[in-house]
TrEMBL record, chain A:
The keyword Transmembrane applies. The chain crosses the membrane at residues 18-36, 42-63, 84-106, 151-169, 189-213. Keywords: Membrane, Transmembrane, Transmembrane helix. It comes from Streptomyces orinoci. It comes from the Bacteria. This is ABC transporter.
TrEMBL record, chain B:
Residues 1-221 form the ABC transporter domain. This is ABC transporter ATP-binding protein. Keywords: ATP-binding, Nucleotide-binding, Transport. It comes from the Bacteria. GO terms for molecular function: ATP binding. The keyword ATP-binding applies.
């Protein structure tokens, strides 16, 4: 598994496909939190929203590096296609962790918030929820299931918009609305944890569906 | 390893393969011959375990499989050595073992262009050598080769034939495709013909008597014209370079080969009847 993750990092770094989603994340984070106003949960809600969109893009980028012939070689070398897919998901999650740290620190640097352990933990919960939900959308919209990039992009945008803007839809919209309207982070830890569990379940379902559907592809 | 009533279709499209029944025994070299678009590559992807069949089952696939697809397009900025080291680690080797194994294979296949140069700078033939090397990093129990001679030079043809023989000699199975009947007949102990998604056993062959032929260029005058020896009927092995070459050929085709070689400016140094492959 570590060898596959190393391979994913090497190929993604060499092709520089990570740059657009990383720049998108940094740009959104800067625009949404640069004024330093509002509450800390609201700032971390913005970071979680930015990571949601960027992680979906990062997932499609990592899974799109290898063309079908090279992916076949990697699958045969690893022995199981599920192992290769799980390594890709873990690689994207590791990349998202780096962005998550930036998302935790940048709002604190820009504004003057009262930092508490509960506030920091809520920031981690929210961004992990955003990352897992984003990857869950990126996986089925990747090259594994879509041969035409235009179709993949349209599907991904529709799913991202629907997940982000459908009022009260768990996990992301419900969590972000709570964070935007509640100033006390300690009160949001429990619902934040529940939404993170929903996001992890969503990611597991998307991984299983992608694995099943990609097995019959050419 | 056995394919039982295997079929493949994509979505609601037509059947690419239908009711395929085939058997691949350890130590055997099996060819799937057929024209472009006949379904050979899809069949090999099913054999290698990359694609799931829509119908039927594949049973008895060995644990260690080496697979060379018909097209090789890795991340081109990686060097051949870095790429092979990654593939070796994915197969469970340590970094040192993977690098040493990769280095040995690239040397044996005579990679031109540098093991540390980016893959994008390699020619098609040298890229194919890297593709072959990745499939051999760990000794395969099943070696699946899709059009493996594509782009390879004459000396690499000989090395590939040796490697196939070695894998089969260790008790592994080798499966390959080629659209040239002369190649499949010369290399395979069992040949299936793929046509329109159907697969038919063309026949197994027993070992025919072989003749060894050694050719050289003339002492004076123009050098002999180059021939693609591997594709000539009955040729089983080729060793040597541009001015001196050693061939193993089926006895029934030896006279025709000698006539062709003489017409192309080669001189006959030695002919030995009853050689081993």
């Amino acid at each position: 598994m570590i060898a596959l993750i190393r391979y994913n990092f090497a190929t993604t770094l060499h092709t520089q496909r990570y740059l657009p989603p990383v720049f998108l994340f940094l740009g959104l984070l800067a625009v949404l939190t640069v004024n330093g106003g509002g509450s800390l949960p609201a700032a971390y809600a913005s970071a979680a929203g930015a990571l949601f969109v960027s992680s979906a893009w990062l997932a499609t980028a990592v899974l799109g590096v290898d063309d079908p012939a090279q992916r076949a070689i990697v699958v045969v070398s690893a022995g199981r296609s599920l192992k290769v897919l799980l390594a890709s998901v873990l690689s994207v999650l590791l990349g998202c962790l780096v962005l998550l740290v930036t998302g935790l620190v940048f709002p604190l640097w820009m504004g003057s918030y009262r930092l508490t352990p509960a506030g920091l933990l809520l920031g981690v919960e929210a961004q992990l929820t955003g990352a897992c939900t984003g990857i869950a959308i990126g996986l089925p919209c990747s090259r594994l299931l879509f041969r035409r990039q235009g179709h993949a992009l349209l599907t991904a945008v529709a799913l991202l918009m629907g997940t982000l803007f459908t009022q009260g839809l768990p996990p992301l919209n419900r969590l972000l609305r709570l964070m935007a309207t509640t100033d006390d982070p300690a009160r949001l830890l429990a619902p934040g944890g529940a939404m993170l569990l929903v996001a992890v379940a969503l990611l597991a379902t998307a991984t299983a569906a992608t694995q099943f559907l990609s097995g019959g592809k050419p | 390893m056995r394919l039982e009533a295997v079929g493949k279709r994509y979505g609601r499209g037509g059947w690419v393969l239908r009711d395929v029944r085939a058997e691949i025994a350890p130590g055997e070299v099996v060819a799937f011959a057929g024209g472009n678009g006949s379904g050979k590559s899809t069949l090999l992807r099913i054999l290698a375990g990359v694609t799931r069949p829509s119908a039927g089952a594949v049973t008895g696939r060995p644990a260690v499989v080496g697979y060379v697809p018909d097209r090789f397009s890795p991340v081109e900025r990686l060097s051949a050595m870095a790429y092979l080291t990654h593939m070796g680690r994915i197969r469970g080797l340590t970094t040192q073992t993977a690098s040493a194994r990769a280095s040995g294979l690239l040397e044996r296949l005579a990679l031109v262009g540098g093991a540390d140069s980016p893959l994008r700078t390699l020619s098609k033939g040298n890229g194919q050598k890297v593709a072959l090397a990745q499939a051999l990093l760990v000794e395969p129990e099943l070696l699946v080769l899709d059009e493996p001679w594509s782009g390879l030079d004459a000396s690499a043809h000989g090395v590939l034939a040796e490697i196939m023989g070695e894998v089969a000699g260790r008790g592994g199975a080798v499966v390959f495709t080629d659209h040239r009947e002369a190649v499949t007949r010369a290399r395979a102990s069992r040949t299936y013909v793929v046509d329109g998604g159907r697969v038919v056993l063309q026949g197994s062959r027993t070992q025919p008597p072989l003749t060894g032929v050694v050719l050289t260029g003339p002492d004076t005058g123009p050098p002999p014209r180059t021939l693609d020896w591997q594709t000539l009927q009955g040729v089983r092995a080729v060793h040597g370079g541009e001015t001196r070459i050693s061939l193993t050929v089926e006895r029934a085709h030896a006279d025709a080969l000698l006539q062709l070689a003489l017409r192309h400016g080669w001189s006959v140094v030695d002919v030995t009847r009853g050689v081993d492959e």
